[in-house]
Design a protein that fits this description.
There is one protein chain. 35% of the residues lie in helices and 16% in strands. The chain has a seven-stranded mixed β-sheet with strand order 3-2-16-15-14-4-5. A six-stranded mixed barrel has the order 21-29-26-28-27-30.
Length: 723
């Protein structure tokens, strides 16, 4: 697979794939799901809501992609046949992730008794009574509550309220394994934690950086904006160790011209630094901008802080140190810096290739430094865009599903509900898993996602989950996390409605800080229940003497009233179901240089260049075109030459040095684990390697960025040898 130059992202094959998926779903069911006024269930780029299921906030139609269709295809499935549960859990554990996904929707509460090897279907009252009993008898400090980014704002708010009223601040979400480094890095530099732009700003950008992300696979509708930037004479600069074919050329399905000519050029320039060396590259770009005289000195003097130390650090850093660290030439770096210097409106977009490092926060700070250097934060058509994964992962954080809340927010909650919350600082996701592995967690409530598969070091993840005496899952489908790491304890799995099946309208927040209203209302499986209803029933049973009427408070209108009164910027949520007026959260989008830091200034931060590990390859775990997070839809990757799930992507010279040939079996060894794979040539810098997540989690350690608590999924030192 040494030559991927013939591969084009998107195109007729993707259209046919999407049509085939719709055919499998049934055209009528698919049309109903895709056109209803509900937010897209895939990535947080966002579409749908009150403008229509395939329309974005700019009114563009059709805004739909194969990821949207894949997500719907899962939810439209019928319930899992009852005969499946005649099989043992060991039988189910032999299924692949894709096979688990294809079993169908979970249609009944399931219970695994302590030590049993089978799931038993239960009625709702029995399931809720037992779950509430087990949680009520558990010391709250020995529990944790974890949510994915799939849930609504309403369910998320009730989820964290229930946890805190119960007595624990061990409330966390999947962002600790994805973009928490973004929130931390932006807090130190600009005093905010999310995107500084809205979707419309992309229409006026003349330069878009795409850093450590592969939107051709993971955010396909963003590609439309990149194509449009190129067509109006702008530039798209990709910074990614891997030369991803879909970022070079992409046939945009909604563009007949793009399809007919065999694809549109996406990247105007493409830099491939070694994995983990991005800070050296960013500092090189900043050094070149200063040398070329294109820094915005007036902006820096008026709105910046800490620039003198930042500039001195760059002057002390030699070009030899920069180029040796990142593997790029000074000429390449200066060329891209000059392009940046010519731009008037630059947007910096990045993904988990930046955040999945033990220096992930510093990566984000270095990006912010580069944007501030030319005054690209605080004006129209320019700014920062973290490319968030799940459709409401940002909203889940906004409404408080996190271990530490601002003091004023906590006080408002306590006053509103007449309760006193625990004082102890809550634990992040990895800290909860480590405590579980140490035998100090007796119960966990897990709303959506696949925490077992998402956690690094699969052996550790299995031990940690197995040590939890009672696990309560709220989910639409079964996944491998429901059949692995069970240990000897009890497991309860409750079936929940999908977003478009909710009994009452719900809201979601996009990566652009835009809050959408989803109508819900589709009835597919009578036996499933909304998450908020389940949480209300649990609260009523667990805390019968609480001043919070959990059963009544699970109504979404009441939840939105509470969020609007308590969470800053969410005031317009109170009447969204009546006014049908979707909105941007206040004080997030920066069209003027007004920063959220204590002194109101944007802060330059000195970011040390991380030390390399000579003699070892640096491996990053990546997603395939046919998956979404840990959900596997297809076993091969159409954008990487039909590579299978066990492909280990390597530089050709690194392969030759190790005596490896294409397709040869290899053993990959890290400090924590080992996996078997197939050597696969790919356009990568020397010293870099890729393998698929979550299979490669066996290689990833549990060390985390000290500030974001995010594991290093994308900078794992490994050795690769022939099997």
């Amino acid at each position: 697979m040494s030559d991927t130059s013939h591969i084009v992202g998107g195109g007729p094959k993707k259209v046919l794939y999407t049509l085939a998926t719709i055919g499998q779903m049934g055209v009528g069911k698919a049309a109903k799901a895709l056109t209803a006024k509900n937010t897209c269930k895939a990535c947080a780029y966002g579409m749908g809501g009150q403008k229509g299921g395939m329309t974005n906030e700019l009114g563009e139609f059709p805004s739909v992609c194969n990821k949207s269709v894949q997500a719907q295809s899962t939810d439209i499935q019928p319930a899992i046949p009852g005969a499946i549960f005649d099989h043992t859990i060991d039988d189910l554990a032999e299924l692949t992730g894709r096979e688990m996904e294809k079993l169908g929707r979970l249609g009944t509460p399931l219970f695994r008794r302590a030590g049993s090897n089978r799931f038993e279907p239960l009625d709702w009252d029995s399931a809720l009574d037992h779950a509430a009993h087990r949680l009520a008898e558990t010391e709250p400090a020995r529990s944790f509550f974890y949510s994915s980014g799939r849930s609504s704002n309403e369910a998320g708010f009730l989820f964290q309220l229930l946890a805190r009223a119960y007595g624990t601040n061990n409330v966390n979400n999947c962002s600790y394994y994805c973009h928490q480094a973004t929130s931390e890095g932006l807090a130190t530099t600009i005093g905010k934690g999310t995107a500084t732009i809205e979707l419309e700003d992309l229409t006026g950008a003349d330069l878009i950086f795409v850093i450590g992300a592969n939107p051709s696979s993971n955010h396909p509708r963003f590609i439309h904006m990149l194509k449009a930037c190129r067509e109006r004479g702008g530039q798209v600069i990709i910074i990614n160790p891997a030369k991803e074919p879909g970022l070079v050329k992409f046939a945009v399905p909604k563009s007949p011209v793009s399809m007919l000519k065999g694809g549109s050029e996406i990247a105007s320039d493409y830099l491939q630094p070694r994995i983990g060396s991005d800070i050296a590259l960013f500092k090189g770009l900043a050094k070149a901008v200063l040398a070329q005289g294109t820094a915005d000195r007036e902006f820096i003097a008026t709105h910046g802080a800490g620039f003198a130390a930042f500039e001195a650090d760059l002057k002390a850093l030699s070009w030899e140190e920069i180029t040796e660290a990142c593997g790029l030439s000074r000429t390449d770096i200066e060329r891209v810096a000059a392009a940046y210097g010519r731009s008037n409106n630059a947007v910096f977009a990045w993904g988990m290739g930046m955040t999945h490092h033990v220096h992930g926060v510093a990566n984000v700070e270095a990006i912010a430094n580069l944007a501030l250097l030319r005054g690209m934060i605080g004006k129209r058509f320019a700014g920062l865009l973290p490319l968030r994964g799940h459709s409401n992962v940002q909203g889940i954080g906004t409404i408080g599903v996190k271990p530490v809340l601002a003091r004023d927010v906590l006080e408002k909650m306590e006053q509103a509900f007449g309760v006193t919350f625990p004082e102890e600082k809550g634990l992040d996701t990895m800290a909860c898993m480590q405590r579980a592995a140490a035998g100090a967690i007796d119960a966990a409530v897990i709303m959506g996602g696949n925490l077992w598969a998402a956690t690094p070091d699969t052996a550790f993840s299995t031990r940690a989950m197995a040590s939890i005496g009672f696990k309560l899952y709220l989910t639409t489908t079964l996944n491998q996390g429901h059949v692995h790491g069970l240990g000897e304890g009890e497991v309860m799995i409750l079936p929940v409605t999908a977003r478009d099946e909710e009994w009452e309208p719900t809201t979601q927040e996009s990566m652009f800080n835009f809050v959408r209203l989803s109508d819900g209302g589709i009835n597919r499986i009578d036996s499933v229940r909304p998450e908020s209803w389940i949480l209300g029933q649990l609260g009523r049973r667990m805390l019968p003497n609480s001043p919070i009427d959990f059963a009544a408070f699970s109504g979404h209108a009441r939840l939105r009233d509470a969020i609007a009164a308590i969470v800053p910027g969410m005031e317009e949520l109170a009447d969204i179901d009546v006014a049908k007026r979707e909105f941007h959260i206040r004080n997030r989008v920066l069209h003027a240089p007004s920063f959220g830091t204590p002194d109101g200034k944007a802060h330059f931060v000195v970011t040390p260049v991380p030390r390399a590990e000579p003699g070892r390859l640096m491996l990053a775990s990546v997603r395939s075109e046919g998956q979404f997070n840990s959900i596997i839809y297809e076993e091969t990757d159409s954008y990487r030459g039909k590579a299978g799930r066990l492909a280990v992507f390597l530089n050709a010279e690194d392969m030759a040095e190790r005596g490896l040939v294409e397709g040869q079996g290899v053993t990959v060894t890290s400090d924590v684990g080992q996996m078997q794979g197939l050597a696969t040539r790919f356009d990568l810098p020397r010293g870099s390697a890729l393998a698929y997540y979550p299979e490669a989690n066996v290689l990833v350690g549990t060390a985390v960025d000290p500030r974001s608590k995010t594991p290093a999924f994308k900078s794992v030192p490994v050795e690769v040898v022939a099997r």
